[in-house]
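In this section we walk through a basic example: taking a raw amino acid sequence and producing a predicted 3D structure, encoded as discrete structure tokens. The instruction is simple. Fold the sequence below.
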Amino acid sequence: MVLEEFFNSSKVIDLSFFNFQNAITAAYFADSDYKVIRTNQNFKQFFPALGNLHGVYFPEILEALDVEKKYIDEFIETIEKNGRVLIPRLEIVQGDDKRVLSLLSTKTESTDFSFLRGVQGQFVDRTQEDKLRQEKDQLVEEQLKNQNIIKQKSERLEEISKRLASYLSPQVYESIFQSDGVISKKHQRKNLTVFFSDIVSFTELSDTLEPEVLAVLINNYLSEMTNIAIECGGTIDKFIGDAVMVFFGDPQSNGERHDALACVEMAAKMQNRIAELQTYWKTLGIRDGMQVRMGISTGYCTVGDFGSQQRLDYTAFGSPVNLAARLESFAPAGNIIMSEATQELVGDQVGSEVYKAITPRGFSRPVNTFILTDHNLKLKVQEATQFKKQGSRVSIDIFDTSDIRAAIAELKEIELEFERLIEEE
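The resulting token sequence is shown next.
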């Protein structure tokens, strides 16, 4: 006796499919040959254009929905092999309606009723979920794009700030980039020690040199002078051709006496360095070398940002500035001339003597001047970093510090050359 003969197969299938009738998914039941026997109400709402599907081969339904062939083949092969299949994403377009669905199907087994052996499955609507995922992906993509833009802008700003650092004195650079407010024009009266220098007969010298050689020479000279100025705490105001203007006392000051001593020490170190560089400069074609005049003056100046709305210049004005420039022009080649005000601040620590009373252009009365007689100063001011190293067997003097990394690379090449010579011996 066969149990299923006592039951109405249609009623049993209805009872078995009952839980799917009111499901929010599009559910179906097909026999073991994949011919559809039942679909729920949502199946008809999902796919109204399909009409009556009773007895239709389920893979043909997928074809009618324009499902790609690879997914149809995947459906058949997987369910035959594993007894179940999940296709997570199918795009179904019906007219203007586009849905994203996932298809879950499994084979059903029954020992008592053969008509319950088949395939039961459902389409789950993932349209809203897919839309949210796409929006999330888009937001993530935009966020990454914004992060890349921010990174590029930050790198660009860093590059610009590094370039600006080449144009600004370190003290001015720090005052600009460490300020948390709006930069405005600020002016104040401060007691400064001002320095001017100028290469003797540079105009005639520049007319005799090739542009490339002149560029190497002037860049080397200004780099060396800049290194010393920065190391001694000076604020580099400007380069005017070969001329250099530096002042001490703003934006940072250690007191007028210390500022004056630091300025004098800077000038002395510059003259010493110039003497050391003569050999190198001769290799560039400067047979007679170069001599530099220097002038130093101390007094109250107006210092701050001056210029137009389009361009500002951080500089100092006043008679001490003019006097320092005039003293430099009166100084003998290779010497440093100081004003009386500077001498009064540093005279007890430096070797100097009266030079002469002069009446500079723009001054109504003569001014007393002093010439620095000792350039090897031992002052208690900030020591400059030396690019010289004296060992027990070797002495190294980097005479061109305009590109210190290139100098280090050259030292490594020399080391390799020595190693090669040792191996040959």
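Looking at the output, two observations stand out. The longest helix spans residues 127-167. The two ends are 110 Å apart (CA to CA). In the next section we compare this with other chains.
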